[in-house]
Every structure is written in C-alpha cells, then in structure tokens.
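Researcher: We're teaching a course module on how sequence relates to structure. For the next exercise, students receive a sequence and then see the predicted structure as tokens, so they can try to spot secondary structure elements on their own. Here is the exercise chain.
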Amino acid sequence: MLYMWKAKLISLTVLTALVLTACGGGNGSGDGEVLLYEEEVSGGAVDAAESYETVTVRREDYQEMYNDTGELDYTDNDAVYIDEEDAVLDSIKVKRNQRIQKGDVLAVFHLETSKTKLEKQRLVNEQARAEFESGLGSLRNSLSQAEQEYDRLSNEAEKKMKNLEIKKMQKEIEAYKKGEKELVDQEREYAALVRMQSGTKLVAKRGGVVTDVSRDLVGQDVDSSQKIVELRNNDKWLIKVTDPESKLRYNMNVSVRLGKTAKKYDHEITGRVVTSSDLTGASDELDSAGNRIVYIDVSEEDKKKYDFDKYNIYIYAVTFEVKDALMVDIRAVDQETVEFTNNSFVWVLDDGYLHKRFIVSNYRNEKDCLVSQGLSEGQTLAIVK
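Model: And here is the predicted structure for the students to work with:
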C-alpha cells in the first residue's frame, strides 16, 4: 500500500528531489496535478516498479467491428384466393419452393351452382336483352321516320328544324347503346358461371416462388377468405441481421460477403442499413431472444447479378474508428469525484515514483481507454488497486 508523505523533518537532499520531480522531471507529460508517493519499508524506499503491474501508453488506429450472419427476408408476399361463390377445390398443381411464371396454373376448381339459380339467371339475362333490343329498335324507327320526313320537306326553315331533331335523336341512340355494356357483362358472367361447373383453372397473375399450399382444402368447399397458394417475389427482399449491442446505425454502409464461410467468401458487395426506427421513434423489432433486428439492403444491380439464395451471407462493418489514438489499459484508469464531477486519473511511473495524472478520455470500453489529453506515447502506468 502507498502512504502519503506525512509531515516530518526530511533531509535537504530528499526535499530537493521531490521538488524536481513535481516540476515535471522524467518522461511525464500533460497538464494536471502531480503528487509524489513512495512506499515506506524498513531500510528505506523501494522502487515502485517492482511492486506494481505496469502497462505502456500506446498509439494505434482503434476500430470496433460488427460481424454476424444474415438471412433473406422477403418483403413482397402474396396470397391467391378463389373469389367465387359455391367453389369446390379439385386439385393444387404446384408445390412449395417451386418457381412459377405469370399465367401458370396453380389449382383447379369447379362451381356447384344449383340448376335453379342458373336458370333464373338465364331468364333474367334474356329478358334484359329483349327489353334492350326493343328499346333500341323503337329509337331507330323514330329516327328513320324523321329522316324520311326531312327528305320530303322543301322549306329551308322546316328542314333546319327537322335536322336539329334528327341530331338529337342520334345522340339519344348513342347514349342508349352505352347501356348495353352492363348487359354484356351480365351475359359474360353467366357464360363463365356455366363453364365453371366443370374444371376451372386458377392461374398466377404474377411470377414468384411458392411458399405454401393448402392441400388440406382439396375436395372441400372454399370461399374468398381461404388462401389456396402463397407466393413471394424473389426480387424483393432485405437482409435481416441481429444487432444486440446496437452497433449498426441507419444509412451506414456495411460489407456483405457471400460464400461458404466468413473468411472464404466468393463475393463482397456494399450494403446499406435501412432500418429507420431510430429516426421515427418507433420501437425496435426484436427476435425471440430479445435482440434488436436490423435490415440491410443492396443495390438492384447486385440483386440481379448474384443469386443470394445459393450462398451463406456474412455482414462485416467498422462501427467505430479513431485514427492514431492514444490508448491505455482500462485497468490503469481510476476515477474520483470532485464537486460532483467525475475526474479520470492514472498513476504515471517515472524514476521509481508514481505521479497522479488527470486525463481526458473521449472513449472507453471494457478493455481500453482512449486518451485525448494528459498522456503521451510510451509512458509507463502502474495498475494500482
């Protein structure tokens, strides 16, 4: 244990040595209070270097890394339904992990619509068609009569009035004919309903990869709320990683490595952190172990160039870096409180004496302390416990 010099009579030689050391003799440097201590034992003072573990102030580039594996998280998923009443699922024509194209047959179904319902719909359509044709025929007959009357007129004023009447009737006919579209749609729906009494194909409206199929529904009645096939778009995804220490920050660049192992990888490309919860204030997404989840994106060009499904994905990033930093072992750094302020200090070993030196630290972790003021490279520090 160190003992502070007690008030006592000392020789002029020792006093002179203390004054010279306190004024900065030896290799010590930096501002701050300097106090001298030595160990008292029988027979005189002992070199402090023999009593304490020491470390050296070193200068180097300091980096903290993030390394982890990633997995693809597909962001564009879709489900396919049978949007018909009275549908029965006959079969499913695809399987999980199968790649499909737009227009491929996914399943086959049929409708079990009652004959009474079909007959009722047929009669409604026929009556609507007859009424439409009758109304259109009546308008056309009126137009034909007006045109004949126009031809028999010789008075210019009367012909002008009749011409205006004819144009008005022509516009009425065009407006009436537009109503036929609804009738045609009803007739097409009826025709489709008749066709779907037998096997009807459920086709894909887009390409993708099948992620799930509902084979347990085959042979059963299904409605528009039951998923038949689930698909994903293989071109729309993000890389999902865990970040328990919150080292990855929004919009920072990372290295995405594709290969068998983290050291033996085939390709290395640039990724970008796209998680925005830190900006929006939304709560972070967590995995089952409570670790924060972060998403990384890569360029569309790289997504097309490399088949990410075929590789293991490794994420590497420099999350913190200081060039040419002064570093010391964290065990050599102590703290004391002066007027509610925590001050950091070290014990500088110089010529057998320990000097208490206050320092300014701009960063520290569990092993090291980065010093911005108070020390210089190569100085020896004692670990005083």
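Model: If you want an answer key for the exercise: The longest helix spans residues 115-152. The radius of gyration is 44 Å.
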